[in-house]
């Protein structure tokens, strides 16, 4: 069976031009509820810290304190400040899973780290048999 048409036509029955397809897919998938625990955004899973907006300020000149005529701002560009996220194995509801947590949350002790796995080849072979 040969299926003709774009993704929106095949899956959702929408008649959309080639140029508008990416918009349609974005609209369709924005209405789908997000899965908990599967989060690729730069957000801490415990504290909720996220990237902040800021700016880089370029200055030129010599400061008055150092004997110059003062510094002047020559350019301001936008930038983002990212949280210091670390991927950590943690105990969550009795099961071990990876979490993306800020270093600040680790220092505060908000994460209970998973115990080291003690694996022995002989014991594993005996358990199988």
Question: How would you describe the overall organization of this protein?
Answer:
The structure is a single chain. This protein is of the alpha+beta class. It has a domain at 1-32. The chain is 23% helix and 27% strand. It is built from 4 helices and 4 strands. The protein has helices at residues 7-12, 21-30, 103-108, 121-128, and strands at 52-60, 72-81, 85-92, 95-102. The chain has a two-stranded antiparallel sheet with strand order 1-2. Strands 3-4 form a two-stranded antiparallel sheet. The longest helix is centred in the first third of the chain and has 10 residues, at 21-30. It starts with 6 loop residues before the first helix and ends with a helix. Residues 24-36 have low confidence and may be disordered.
Short key terms for the protein model shown above:
129 residues, alpha+beta, two-stranded antiparallel sheet, 4 helices
**What would the principal axes of the Cα set say about the shape?**
elongated
Number of strands: 4
Q: Approximately how much beta-strand content do the residues carry?
A: 25-35%
Trace the largest sheet across and list its strands.
1-2
User: pLDDT average, as an integer?
Assistant: 79
Query: What class would the helix/strand composition place it in?
Result: alpha+beta
Q: Tell me the distance between the termini.
A: 48 Å
């Amino acid at each position: 069976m040969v299926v003709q048409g774009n993704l929106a036509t095949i899956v959702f029955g929408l008649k959309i031009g080639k140029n508008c397809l990416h918009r349609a897919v974005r609209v369709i998938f924005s209405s789908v509820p997000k899965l908990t625990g599967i989060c690729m955004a730069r957000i801490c899973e415990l504290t909720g810290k996220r990237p902040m907006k800021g700016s880089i300020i370029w200055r030129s000149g010599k400061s008055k304190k150092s004997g110059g005529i003062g510094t002047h701002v020559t350019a301001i560009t936008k930038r983002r400040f990212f949280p210091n996220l670390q991927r950590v194995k943690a105990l969550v509801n009795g099961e071990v899973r990876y979490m993306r947590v800020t270093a600040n949350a680790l220092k505060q002790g908000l994460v209970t780290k998973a115990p080291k796995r003690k694996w022995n080849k002989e014991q594993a072979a005996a358990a199988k048999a």
